[in-house]
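Assemble and predict.
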Amino acid sequence: MAAPDCLERARLLVEPALEAAVDRLCADLRLPAGYHFGWDEHNGSPAGVGAGKGLRPTLALLSAEAVGAPAEVGVPGAVAVELVHNFSLVHDDIIDGDTERRHRATVWSAFGVDDAVISGDALHTLAFQVLLDDPTPERVVATTRLVDATAAMIAGQAADMAFDDRLDVDLAACLAMEADKTGALLGYAASVGAVLAGADTTRVNALEAFGQEMGLAFQAVDDVLGIWGDPTVTGKAAGNDLRERKKSLPVALVLDAGDSAADELRAVYAGDGDLSDADVIRVAALIEEAGGRDRTVVEARQHLDTALDTLGGVDLVETVVVELAGLACFVVERDF
Amino acid sequence: MAAPDCLERARLLVEPALEAAVDRLCADLRLPAGYHFGWDEHNGSPAGVGAGKGLRPTLALLSAEAVGAPAEVGVPGAVAVELVHNFSLVHDDIIDGDTERRHRATVWSAFGVDDAVISGDALHTLAFQVLLDDPTPERVVATTRLVDATAAMIAGQAADMAFDDRLDVDLAACLAMEADKTGALLGYAASVGAVLAGADTTRVNALEAFGQEMGLAFQAVDDVLGIWGDPTVTGKAAGNDLRERKKSLPVALVLDAGDSAADELRAVYAGDGDLSDADVIRVAALIEEAGGRDRTVVEARQHLDTALDTLGGVDLVETVVVELAGLACFVVERDF
C-alpha cells in the first residue's frame, strides 16, 4: 500500500477510537480538544476540517503488522501516541506564541491560554488512561515506554526553548534536542504496535530506532519548512522559526561553521524580541547562501537512509517494511 | 503521633525521594521545578524555604501503615501524588493569574508562562515515571488509579474555570466540582500506600473514601481562607477568590439560597474583569452576613465527620486510624 493509502487507512481505523477517547472528557475540556483535532468549530458545531496527517497512528498500526499481528492490535497505542502528540502541540503553541496551526487559530488563540493549558493537561493524562484501561502486560510495557518517550519529548521542548537565549548552539546540541523533541515520540509510535503484539526486544528496538531516525529526518524537513515553507501549505506564518529566533537545524549548521556568515547571523540573533519582517527575509537569505538550507536537506536524507538501514536484517514482515520505508520517504520528501 | 509530627516524619522520609525524582529532569526543567518546591532560588542557589505542608505524602505513608505495612512501602506513591499535586499548582497559578504562593512569586510570575507550562508538564509525566520505574502489579494498580485521579482533578479544575462565566452555580454543582478538583487526589493519597502494600479492596476503598471526604472538608476550609484568610498566613493576596469571581463554596451557598443576598451577589459578580478592592470587601461582608461563611464551616465539619465515620468498622491498624483522624482534624481546624 502506498504511503497516502496507509495514512488514510490508519485514519479510518484510529479516528473513531481517538474520538471515543476524547469524548470521555467533560464538556468544558471536550470543546477545545475537539476544536484542536479539527472535528468541531469554536462554538461546538461540526467542523470536519480534519486533524493532522496522522503519521504517528499510521506508524503504530504498521509496527503491529511488521511483526505479523493485525493492524487493530496497534490501535490503543496509536490513540495514546496521538493524544500525547496533540497535548504537546496545544502547549507548544502557547510557548511559541503561534497563532495558527493547520490554517486555523491555535487553541490558545481561539479559547485563551487558560483553556489551552488545561485541555492540554487533559489530553496528556488521557493518553495514559487509554492504555491502562485494560492493563495487560503488553499495555503496561507500552505505557512505561510512552511515559519515557513523553519525558524525553518535554525535555527536548525545554531545550529548544532554552536555545532561544543562547547563541552558541552547535550541530550536536541541536540534533540532541531534536532527537528528544521529535525522535523519541516517533520512535515510540514506530514500535508500540510491536510492543502490544508482544514482539521480542530485537524487533521492537529495530522499529524504535527506525522511528527515531525518521523523526530526525522529519524534523530537519520541518525546520526547512519553518523558514522557507509556503504558508498556504504549512498553515503557519512564513519565516515563523526565524521570527522567534529559533535555533533550528539550518541555523545551527550556519552557527556551527564559525565563519563570517555565522558572525553575521549571530549579530542579528543577538537582539531582543521578535525579528522584523525585513530581518526575517535577510536572515533567510543569509542562511541559504551559507548553505544552511542545502545541508539541512542532506542531513534529512542521511537520517532517512539510516532509518531504512535499521529495518534491514531484522525478522519483520517484508511487505510492511516496504510500507514503512515508503511512508518515511513520503514524509521526508514532502514539499521539497 | 500527633499530626505535626506525622507531617514532619513524612517530610523526612519522602523529600529525599522527591528530590531524587525531580533531579532526573534536565537542568532547564529542574530549575523552575526546584524553585517551585522551595529548594532553590530563582537563580539556582539554595533557598530552603520549604515546600507545602506535605499532606498528601503523609496520607500515603499512613495508608501503608494502616494496613500493617511499613511506611516506606508508601514512598513511591507519596512522591507520585506530590508530583501530580504540584504540577497542578504550577498550571493552576497560570490559569488563576495568581502571582504568589507560599509567600513567593509563583513559577509563571518568576520564570514566565512558557517555563511554567513546560515544567508543569514535566512534573506531570514524572509522576507516572516514578511509579512505573519498577512495574510490579501493585505499582501498576497505583499508576492506573493515579491516572484516573489526575483526570478527575483536571476535570474539576476545568469546571471551576467554567464557573467563572456562570452565575447559576448551586451547592450540588460546587460540591461535585470540589470532589473532582480536591477530593479525587486526596482520596488517592489516602489509599495509595494500602494499594502498594497489596491490601484488599474493602480496606483500600474505605481509605479512599476517607481521603475524598477529608478533601471536601479541606477544600471548604480553603474556600473560607480564600476569602477571609490572613495573607501573612496563607501566602496569597487577601480576598483572592472573590477578586477572580470564583464560585467557591461560600459563594455557591449564598447563590443557592436564591434570596435578596443572592440577587445582590449575582449583580456584583455579573460584571467583567477582576473585582475592585472595594467590591471585594463589600462582597465578603455580604457573603458573611448571608451566612455563607458559617455554613461553609459547617459543611467542612460535616465532611470531616463523614471522613472519620468511613474508618470505623474496617479492619485497619487502630493506632494509625487515630493518626489519620488526628491529621484530618488538624488540617480542617487550621486557622479558624
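The longest helix of chain A spans residues 201-228.
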